[in-house]
């Protein structure tokens, strides 16, 4: 009788497993429960039913079954492992680690426990320990493809990309069906710009596993990076259709909408993601950043959102007392640190390089903490200009915090604000005695622990202090300086002299071009019937984006043939395209920054509107620094009239074209040494204040 019952249970269990593997979850669950009705402590059934329930997000039921299995079978290693998986999903990594290690103590050859232990350590930011766990298992099982795949993933989070790629390719050579390894290889390839092979990886995974939302999400990011915006949106929507809980999908879809200038949809998507998971700092930061594109939002609303982010993610980390114990000598050489993800061919890279090259080695010692993953020629020049360079992109916030404190940095400068790759939560923990937000920022950080921001009289006019948590330190003219690249093209005469008509233009991000901008630009074109409008930006390389712009202008009576809509180009070619433009039209309320400076450097006058907020005053400051304050319009009517007045004076455009670059070369934007001296004086004053306060406390 007992033998008959056992055979029946075994057959039933095999049938339930078959249904489980085939995705017939309801039938599998029903049969698992029938087995447990006969044999309540059948370990494999408890184990498998727990896995099924975990997949259905029925966590409490799954945990209860596993605890039952452990109580009945204390040496059943698989039950400890699956319970560890549940805790990993809940981001309770330390508890999960304990369970995985116990499972391995019971069964050292349980490869899946090693794989999951490594994954938990990796997700907890402990990449080196994840690597060690896998390597220990590989000593006993050197040909296991799952272990090689996990090794690749552990190496990837440490930034050891070549080793990671080698391990992943090895895993796939042993097991071409490992979709997770292929997906991770795709991410590595994408990160180093090997887009075609990365795309093949994602599409292979999707073909094999159409329900793998993560690969649709990664594919969407790749399509966005390669200028296929509409296809990116479709892939990201599919990722969220498959898994509405994939919070990264909301972030990436909103970013894609922003690229297209669909800011209202972007903001709604960020908020939808936050409604599902309010603890996502990056998602909330991107919401706060993208709100600056919305013309209907004023400075108070924008600052309130930044403060909300800080209240959730930064303020709880800020110590009540400054924990730094640096030597409080007010006149010694200062250890200055810069934290940035953008010391490359990027606006902050162009603004910061001349500072790094002009610091006084007798006054400061400079360390850069670089959070970027794809260095370029500008990165190498920046590296050569400083005393120490630390690549920290693969580090956790705590690792970076400890390193900055170990380096005894006196003044720490943030160059990212709330943009991608920032380390604001390191600043929130007071990594250095004095902390400054550098020039080129688009807003306050909102941090209580950020002491000051480098400003100027134009972007930071008197009375704006309530929009900043930081103390405003004003440069005399502009809060940035600029050094053009070696490949900066020569200036050509204004094209209107040969064309016989004016070409207005804008090379800014389409996210800055909203309905109000369309309205004013259309009015200018209607008032000057022969004029054309040249718009150039990476997202405009995608036909659906161009169609949206054509439609927006058609609604305002501007014919498609008057529009020149172009995608991006290599930077040298991009700059040369200014020679095809007579007058640049600045967007609002988020104005051009580096784009404005580059236009001026190419001799193109820029008509700007003071939009009454920091992000809307970049061009105001740059035009004052260029000696062209008359190009700043106080309101919409003045903006239109200023553009038309310039268009009516081709000889004046020719004169400006000839004189602008020489004037800039002798103006504030090119006074690299003078700017850096003032910056060092600002740092020294803040340092002296800290030293005085420190001495007073002691």
Automatic annotation (TrEMBL):
The protein's name in its UniProt record: protein O-GlcNAc transferase
Gene Ontology molecular function, alphabetical = protein O-acetylglucosaminyltransferase activity
Would I find Lipoprotein among this entry's keywords?
Answer: no
Q: Which UniProt keywords apply?
A: Glycosyltransferase, Repeat, TPR repeat, Transferase
The superkingdom of the source organism is Bacteria
Give a yes or no for keyword ATP-binding in this entry: no
Q: Which residues form the O-GlcNAc transferase C-terminal domain?
A: 331-477, 497-676
What EC number(s) does the entry state? 2.4.1.255
**One Pfam family for this entry, by name?**
TPR_11
Which top EC class is named for this enzyme in its record? transferase
Residues folding into a coiled coil are: none
Q: Which PANTHER family match?
A: PROTEIN O-GLCNAC TRANSFERASE (PTHR44835:SF1), UDP-N-ACETYLGLUCOSAMINE--PEPTIDE N-ACETYLGLUCOSAMINYLTRANSFERASE SPINDLY-RELATED (PTHR44835)
């Amino acid at each position: 009788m007992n033998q008959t019952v056992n055979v029946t249970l075994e057959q039933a269990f095999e049938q339930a497993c078959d249904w489980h593997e085939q995705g017939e979850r309801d039938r599998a669950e029903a049969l698992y429960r029938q087995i447990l009705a006969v044999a309540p402590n059948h370990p494999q059934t408890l184990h498998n039913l727990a896995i099924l329930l975990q997949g259905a997000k029925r966590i409490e039921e799954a945990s209860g079954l596993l605890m039952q299995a452990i109580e009945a079978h204390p040496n059943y290693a698989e039950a400890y492992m699956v319970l560890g998986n549940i805790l990993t999903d809940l981001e309770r990594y330390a508890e999960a680690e304990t369970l995985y290690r116990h499972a391995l103590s019971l069964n050292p050859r349980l490869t899946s426990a090693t794989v999951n232990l490594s994954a938990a350590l990796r997700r907890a930011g402990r990449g080196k320990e994840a690597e060690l766990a896998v390597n220990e298992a590989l000593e006993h099982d050197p040909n296991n493809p799952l272990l090689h795949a996990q090794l690749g993933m552990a190496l990837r989070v440490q930034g050891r990309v070549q080793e990671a790629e080698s391990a992943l390719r090895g895993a796939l050579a042993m097991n071409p069906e490992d979709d997770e390894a292929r997906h991770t290889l795709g991410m590595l390839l994408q990160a180093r710009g090997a887009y075609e092979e990365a795309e093949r990886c994602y599409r292979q995974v999707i073909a094999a596993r159409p329900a793998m939302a993560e690969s649709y999400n990664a594919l969407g990011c790749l399509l966005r990076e390669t200028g296929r915006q509409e296809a990116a949106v479709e892939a990201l929507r599919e990722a969220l259709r498959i898994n509405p809980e994939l919070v990264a999908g909301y972030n990436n879809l909103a970013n894609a909408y922003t690229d297209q200038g669909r800011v209202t949809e972007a903001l709604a998507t960020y908020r939808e993601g936050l409604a599902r998971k309010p603890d996502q700092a990056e998602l909330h930061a991107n919401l706060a950043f993208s709100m600056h594109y919305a013309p209907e939002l004023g400075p108070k609303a924008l600052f309130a959102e930044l403060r909300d982010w800080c209240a959730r993610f930064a303020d709880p980390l800020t110590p009540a007392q400054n924990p730094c114990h640096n030597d409080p000598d007010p006149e010694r050489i200062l250890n200055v640190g810069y934290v940035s993800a953008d010391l490359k061919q990027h606006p902050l890279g162009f603004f910061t390089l001349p500072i790094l090259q002009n610091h006084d080695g007798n006054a400061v010692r400079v360390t850069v903490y670089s959070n970027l993953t794809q260095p370029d020629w500008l990165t190498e020049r920046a590296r050569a200009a400083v005393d120490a360079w630390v690549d920290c992109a693969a580090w956790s916030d705590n690792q970076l915090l400890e390193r900055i404190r170990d380096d005894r940095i006196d003044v720490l400068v943030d160059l990212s604000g709330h943009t991608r790759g920032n380390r604001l939560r390191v600043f929130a923990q007071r990594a250095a005695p004095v902390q400054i937000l550098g020039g080129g920022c688009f807003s306050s950080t909102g941090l209580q622990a950020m002491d000051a921001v480098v400003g100027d009289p134009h972007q930071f006019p008197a009375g704006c202090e309530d929009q900043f948590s930081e103390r405003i330190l004003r440069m005399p003219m502009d809060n940035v300086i600029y050094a053009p690249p070696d490949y900066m093209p020569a200036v050509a005469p204004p094209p209107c002299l040969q064309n016989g008509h004016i070409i207005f233009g804008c090379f800014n991000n389409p996210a800055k071009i909203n309905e109000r901008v369309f309205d004013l630009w259309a009015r200018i074109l209607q008032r000057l019937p022969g004029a054309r409008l040249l718009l150039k930006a990476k997202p405009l390389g995608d036909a659906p984006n161009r169609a949206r712009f054509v439609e927006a202008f058609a609604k305002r009576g501007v014919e498609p043939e008057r529009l020149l809509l172009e995608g991006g180009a290599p930077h040298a070619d991009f700059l040369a395209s200014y020679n095809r433009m007579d007058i640049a039209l600045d967007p609002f309320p988020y104005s051009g920054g580096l784009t404005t400076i580059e236009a001026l450097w190419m001799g193109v006058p820029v008509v700007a509107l003071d939009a009454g907020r920091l992000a809307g005053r970049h061009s105001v400051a740059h035009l004052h620094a260029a000696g062209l304050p008359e190009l700043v319009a106080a309101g919409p009517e003045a903006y239109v009239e200023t553009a038309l007045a310039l268009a009516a004076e081709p000889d004046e455009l020719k004169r400006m074209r000839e004189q602008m670059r020489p004037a800039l070369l002798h103006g504030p934007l090119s006074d690299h040494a003078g700017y850096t001296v003032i910056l060092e004086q600002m740092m020294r004053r803040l340092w002296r204040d800290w030293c005085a306060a420190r001495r007073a406390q002691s």
